[in-house]
Amino acid sequence: MDFSFKKEERIHKRDDLTLLFEKGNSFLIHPFKVLYLESQDSAARTNDPSFLKFGVSIPKRKFKRAVDRNLLKRRVKEAYRLNRNGLKTQLKKQNKYVSFMVIYVDNSILEFSVIEPKIILILQRLQAIYAENH
């Protein structure tokens, strides 16, 4: 199992973000809103080895201090990094490319012990969504 979180696995291009917000589907698992989109253009993905791309957003409107936003981002990314392998291997078997982003919607800073089970639920829900489509 690979537990690294490389740049190729992150959503970092503006075009990818715009496409995700415009055409992506969403669901809510408190304290996160999840946007996800399956990439239809597999020809453009030939030079991109990542089947699963991830992004996290902590709104500045809710957390004014960068220290708080960064703390929450670190907690969310760590929970994702430790638990993503099931979804990643499923997408690889199905040869599907999925991008998803979690947006933190709560007003309080939650502990890692609260965030991790929610991220696991999100990953399980995405696995179920793409298992149905297989």
Question: Would you write up a description of this structure?
Answer:
The protein has a single domain, classed as Ribosomal Protein S5, domain 2. It has four helices and four strands; from the N terminus they run H-E-E-E-H-H-E-H. The chain has helices at 14-23, 66-83, 85-94, 112-132; strands at residues 25-29, 32-38, 52-57, 98-104. A four-stranded mixed sheet has the order 1-2-4-3, sandwiched between helices. A hairpin with a 2-residue loop joins strand 1 (25-29) and strand 2 (32-38). Helix 2 packs across helix 4 and helix 3 (85-94) runs parallel beside helix 4 (112-132). The chain is globular.
Looking at this protein, list some descriptive labels:
alpha+beta, 134 residues, Ribosomal Protein S5, domain 2, globular, 4-stranded mixed sheet
In which order are the strands of the major sheet placed? 1-2-4-3
User: How far is it from the N-terminal to the C-terminal residue, by CA?
Assistant: 24 Å
**What is the name of the CATH topology?**
Ribosomal Protein S5, domain 2
* Level-2 CATH architecture: 2-Layer Sandwich
Itemize the secondary structure elements and their pairings.
Blueprint: H1 14-23, E1 25-29, E2 32-38, E3 52-57, H2 66-83, H3 85-94, E4 98-104, H4 112-132
Parallel strand pairs: 3-4
Antiparallel strand pairs: 1-2, 2-4
